[in-house]
Structure formats: C-alpha cells, structure tokens
Write a structure and sequence with these properties.
With about 200 residues, the chain is an all-alpha fold. The protein has 9 helices and no strands. The relative contact order is 0.17.
C-alpha cells in the first residue's frame, strides 16, 4: 500500500466511522479493555520472570502468527519458563511456526529487539507493553476496515508512509471521541471481525 491521497484518506475516515458505528455497547467495552488486559499480562509475567513488560510483549508478538490469543499467552509463559529451566527451543512446543519460536527465545533473552523497521509489530509491542497512546497497531483487520474490503490483504505490504498516515488519522479520530488510538483500533478490530460475513467480496 503506497502513500494515500487526501481523497483516499477521507474515504478511509468514513470507512472507520462506519465500522465504529456498527460496534455494540458490549463490543465497545471489550475494545476499551482489550489492551489493558494484555498490558496486565505483560506486567504480571515480567514480574514473575524478572524481565520487562517490553520483552514479554515482544515474545507475545513473535508467537502470534496463526496462534489464537489465549494460546499465544500460554505459549509466551511457556517460553519464559523454558528459559528459566535451561531448556532449548526444540524442547518445547508452541502453536506457531518454528522460526517464530526461535525468535521468541532470542527476544526473551534480550539478544534481539523489535525495531521501527517493522511498524506493525513495533507499535503492537508498544501498545501492550506500555499502553503507549502514540503507538497504533495497524493489522490486517484495520486495513480491511480502512478500505472496507475483506479480500485477503497482507498487512506487511503497507509502506511506512501509508502506515504513518493511517496511524495519525486513526489516533486523531479516536481522540475526538475521548478514546486512545489503541482503544479505538480494538473496537474497530472487533466490529470488523464480527461483521465480516456481511462484507465478503
């Protein structure tokens, strides 16, 4: 996805309004709490294994591909427990790709770090580790809502300029509603998923 024009950004703004207005009161409450619960998990695990919430968030992110959220959290704790017990990656099983498991071990040990070169991952880690209001996770569901298009879209294809444009737009819209960017994004995420069957094209 290349740089968006002003016309395209206005359309994205209207599309986000559309999905936000679809959200029920329950979905809004769930969205407002989602990142807070994830942050609580990161803090609890960091305390338990004498590490930082940022490192825990990084491990969670590494283990997320093709992994259900509840299992993702279980797998993250499994990685820290394995390291505490002196185990190697091949000695445990997680519900994602092997390369991601090895990456999670390196992140947990502080040997590597997630950088701004990976915008979606970097922002997600900042959101769940620190509830950073200046960060915004633009994943495949946020793109689908932004474009009102539910065919397969690879979130990794967003250019850095387009990412920053949609990020700034989303945070601005959220703040006008008295929400943080991550709260608004979580609400959109839930509403988009719950209405996907009405928009498959």
């Amino acid at each position: 996805m290349k740089q968006r024009t002003k016309t395209e950004l206005r359309k994205i703004s209207k599309n986000l309004d559309y999905f936000f207005n679809l959200a029920t009161d329950e979905e809004i409450t769930e969205g407002k709490n989602w990142y807070k619960l994830a942050n609580q998990f990161c803090n609890n695990v960091a305390h338990q294994y004498n590490t930082t919430p940022l490192i825990v968030a990084s491990v969670v992110s590494a283990l997320s591909p093709r992994n259900r959220w509840t299992q993702n959290l279980i797998d993250a704790k499994k990685v820290f427990k394995a390291i505490e017990d002196g185990k190697q990656p091949e000695q445990i099983k997680v519900c994602t790709f092997n390369r991601n498991k090895y990456k999670a071990f390196e992140l947990a040990k502080g040997n590597i770090f997630i950088t701004e070169d990976s915008p979606k991952t970097y922002n997600f880690v900042r959101n769940i580790a620190h509830l950073d209001p200046s960060a915004l996770t633009i994943d495949i569901w946020h793109i689908r809502a932004s474009l009102k298009q539910f065919k397969a879209i690879d979130s990794a294809q967003i250019g850095k300029i387009a990412y920053s444009q949609i990020k700034a737009l989303t945070i601005k819209k959220a703040n006008k509603l008295g929400l943080t960017g991550y709260e608004y994004q979580a609400i959109i995420w839930i509403a988009a998923q719950n209405n996907i069957n009405n928009f498959k094209k």
